[in-house]
Specification:
The complex is a heterodimer of chains A (527) and B (200).
Chain A (H helix, E strand, L loop, with lengths): L2 E4 L2 E4 L6 H8 L22 E4 L6 E2 L9 E4 L3 H14 L17 H9 L18 E2 L4 E3 L9 H9 L5 E4 L6 E4 L12 H5 L5 E3 L12 E6 L8 E6 L12 E6 L12 H4 L14 E2 L2 E2 L2 H13 L6 E4 L6 H14 L4 E3 L22 H8 L6 H9 L5 E5 L3 H5 L1 H10 L2 E6 L4 H5 L2 E4 L8 E4 L4 E5 L12 H12 L8 H11 L8 H4 L4 E2 L5
Parallel strand pairs in A: 1-5, 16-17, 16-18, 18-19, 19-20
Antiparallel strand pairs in A: 1-2, 3-4, 3-5, 6-7, 7-10, 8-9, 11-12, 12-13, 14-15, 14-20, 21-22, 22-23
Chain B lengths: L3 H12 L5 H17 L6 H4 L2 H26 L30 E2 L14 H5 L5 E7 L7 E9 L8 H5 L5 E2 L16 E2 L1 H6 L1
Antiparallel strand pairs in B: 1-4, 2-3, 3-5
Classes of the chains: A alpha+beta (527), B alpha+beta (200).
């Protein structure tokens, strides 16, 4: 294994490793535009030039493999001088319209210019104008050819990751321009990833366009609830300036690096699946048409449960809930009340899927629900059929849209038969109008907890902000019911619940929030 | 270690560079607050208020009669070498302002009368009083691209620091209207929108 010295630090790496990879391992950051960890090397931007001892010319760090005894300098005067020159060259035809550019604030041109540029412009000619400025090239992506520095990251992304080949660089010299092939659209299901990898503002997000400046955004790590893949994401939100986008808090979602799950990528469906966090929410407990307080709501539930035999209670949980919520569901209904009719499986139509990230199961926590609630005696469909026959008096539904699953007629009949249909969910749907009692619960971005994805990987989510309006966390609502019933759980936070899960549920043993951290751990794996 | 300022300074040092402007500012604030808290007690004689009231009235009257006499003498063409306090008949006669005085804002226009502002939100970001609220929109011309759908400036909150003018990359906001009399009957009418900022 070759040993190299980079800026005086020695490191031993596998043969074939490039200088930039070795430097990354040491925590030395070499500037880069065209180089991306997950894409093939192109070596056209030339900003990653480093000085290698005993070599007359500077070398590009992204394509030069390390050799034994190599001595690399990344900050010598020669290197800094080249970086300045390269930046000047890249900026020759750049319009410098940072005030209107959405990338401003997270733009690599800005970042490296602050560090290495800062010279007076020597350009006497007129900048070359390009054809396409603010042109939509797909349902999600906007192109500005003038801002493009032709690093071809996006081209390589469509060539190697999605293999759809929509993008290319056309013409020669300073007429070169990035574009979609004639008659094509950048409309593959992963298209918006090119926005993330674009180091400048050439490709920007149609959805995020002009909503908010990036420096206003707070970032919270989370996991996408869109399907059972559980892609790692960052929820980017802005609470301090509600005038920006219709008082919405979440501005965009960005993928977060996790090599075992989604690497750098996320599908477009997951990326734009955030509007439900702020829109169409249930914000107050509601009994039929009356808005009520939480005390009254809990009172109603407890009264109904106490006056009903346990075999006449039905609970339809949801794989949208976190492990912690599901554990409390199990603890309250299965352990304390001894209800047999608890299920999370509903006969959902499998959605679209592919062999990359998208999974057919659109629930983020099916594996977790199976591990925690076990295989139930009755399926949700059977519970509903039972309710339809009038064998169930209290039906407690967690966020499942019964109307969508079983049809209007069935639900209307069920509502007539049961004494109390409780709907505990975050968003308004058709089931809400049928339910006797609506309890507003929090969405995933407001929760702390864990999801278990299709690879049996337990992954943490963090709360970005407090639940909207009067809505409360699912486990808090259930704890309130338990307290009213006289069997308080004594959980202070989700960490307490997770400790309990680790102690009682197989597969979770020895897991803690600290050990899970932001990359997650595989269920059943010995730590 | 009894000195609370020193204690606080050491505490701050854990989190900030002690020489950073922020830390220095905090320490200065603490010093002022400490001085204010530990100020001298008033004596019995001072507590009667009479001596302070008398000194105050004496000082005001001295200036009043001094200026009154001088103005009368000036009327008769006497004592012209001695200056009396200047009086302006505000608001009929406005006080002359220096060209650099920061006065009420205005939004500058392009040739076609639309605002020059491109909604980059620099002013909104830098504003220490958080009195500017901009909502950006898509401009039909791709060479302008972005424009402010809403530009709201709450003069009730504004501290007239002029940061917004300094930070503007398009010279779109200026504080050169010469207007300082933004008195209104309600807080709502102190809130200026794009139209008022451009035309009033």
């Amino acid at each position: 294994m070759p040993k190299v010295i980079i800026d005086g630090q020695e490191i031993e790496v596998a043969a074939g490793t490039t200088i930039i990879q070795a430097a990354d391992k040491l925590g030395i950051s070499i500037p880069r535009y065209c180089y991306h960890d997950a894409l093939p090397v192109s070596g056209n931007c030339r900003i990653c030039m480093v000085e290698v001892e005993k070599q007359p010319k500077l070398q590009i760090a992204c394509y030069t493999p390390v050799a034994d005894g190599m001595v690399v300098k990344t900050n010598s005067p020669k290197v800094l001088d080249v970086r300045k020159t390269v930046l000047e060259f890249l900026l020759v035809n750049h319009p410098v319209d940072c005030p209107v550019c959405d990338q401003a604030g997270e733009c690599k041109l800005q970042d490296y210019y602050m560090e290495h540029g800062q010279y007076n412009s020597r350009l006497v000619d007129v900048k070359v104008k390009k054809e396409k400025k603010a042109v939509q090239i797909g349902p999600t992506v906007m192109l500005d050819q003038e801002r493009c520095i032709l690093c071809t990251r996006c081209v390589r992304f469509t060539n190697t990751i999605t293999k759809t080949n929509e993008l290319g660089v056309f013409e020669r010299g300073d007429h070169s321009q990035l574009d979609v092939y004639p008659g094509k659209q950048l409309d593959n299901p992963y298209a918006a990833n090119v926005v993330d990898i674009c180091p400048v503002g050439a490709l920007t997000d149609k959805d995020f366009r002009f909503k908010c400046r990036v420096w206003y955004l707070a970032k919270t790590k989370s996991v996408c609830p869109g399907c059972s893949r559980g892609c790692n994401i960052t929820v980017e939100w802005d609470k301090m300036r509600p005038h920006h986008f219709k008082k919405a808090r979440v501005m965009r979602l960005k993928p977060r690096l996790n090599p075992d799950v989604n690497n750098y990528w996320i599908c477009d469906a997951g990326r734009y699946n955030y509007r439900f966090i702020d829109e169409n929410r249930i914000t107050t407990p509601q009994l039929k048409d009356d808005l009520i307080t939480w005390e009254q709501a809990i009172e109603t539930v407890v009264k109904a449960i106490k006056s009903t035999k346990t075999d006449r209670i039905g609970v339809i949980a949801s794989a949208q809930l976190t492990n912690e919520d599901l554990f409390v569901v199990g603890k309250l209904f299965k352990e304390t009340l001894k209800v047999a009719n608890v299920d999370y499986r509903v006969g959902q139509q499998p959605g679209n899927s592919d062999d990359f990230l998208i999974k057919a199961d659109k629930n983020p926590n099916t594996a977790g629900a199976a591990a925690i609630l076990g295989v139930p005696a009755l399926s949700a469909e059977e519970i509903v059929q039972k309710a339809k026959r009038g064998e169930i008096d209290v039906l407690y539904v967690f966020g499942q849209d019964l109307v969508k699953l079983f049809g209007k007629d069935v639900v209307a009949e069920v509502v007539k038969k049961v004494k109390l249909l409780v709907y505990q969910g975050s968003n308004i749907n058709e089931t809400c109008s049928y339910a006797h009692l609506n309890l507003p619960s929090a969405v995933y971005a407001e929760k702390e907890g864990t999801f278990t994805n299709c690879q049996q990987k337990v992954q943490r989510i963090w709360p970005a902000f407090v639940p909207l309006g009067e809505s409360r966390l699912d486990w808090v609502i259930l704890s309130m019911i338990a307290e009213k019933m006289g069997t308080a759980f004594k959980y202070k936070n989700t960490q307490d619940i997770f400790k309990d899960i680790a102690a009682t549920v197989d597969g979770f043993s020895e897991m803690t929030y600290e050990k899970l951290n932001d990359q997650g751990l595989i269920l059943n794996k010995k730590l | 270690m009894d000195n609370p300022i020193e204690k606080r300074r050491l505490e701050l040092e854990k989190y900030f560079d002690a020489k950073s402007p922020f830390a220095l500012l905090r320490v200065a604030q603490m010093k002022r607050a400490w001085k204010h808290k530990n100020r001298r007690e008033l004596t019995w004689w001072e507590n009667t208020y009479i001596p302070t009231v008398v000194t105050g009235i004496h000082l005001t009257s001295k200036h009043f009669f001094h200026n009154l006499n001088l103005h009368i003498l000036h009327l008769f063409g006497l004592c012209k070498d001695q200056k009396a306090a200047v009086t302006y008949q505000y608001p009929e006669q406005p006080r002359p302002l220096s060209a650099r005085t920061r006065t009420r804002h205005r939004l500058t226009k392009r040739e076609d009368g639309s605002p020059r502002c491109v909604a980059c939100m620099m002013c909104e970001t830098v504003c220490p009083a958080r009195c500017i609220e901009i909502t950006a929109g898509e401009h039909p011309d791709p060479n302008i691209e972005k424009f402010p759908q809403k530009f709201v400036l709450d003069l009730g909150k504004c501290v007239y620091c002029g940061f917004c003018v300094e930070v503007c990359p398009e010279d779109a906001i200026r504080m050169d209207t010469g207007k300082l009399n933004t008195a209104e009957y309600s807080r709502e009418s102190m809130i200026y929108d794009k139209k008022r900022l451009m035309d009033e």
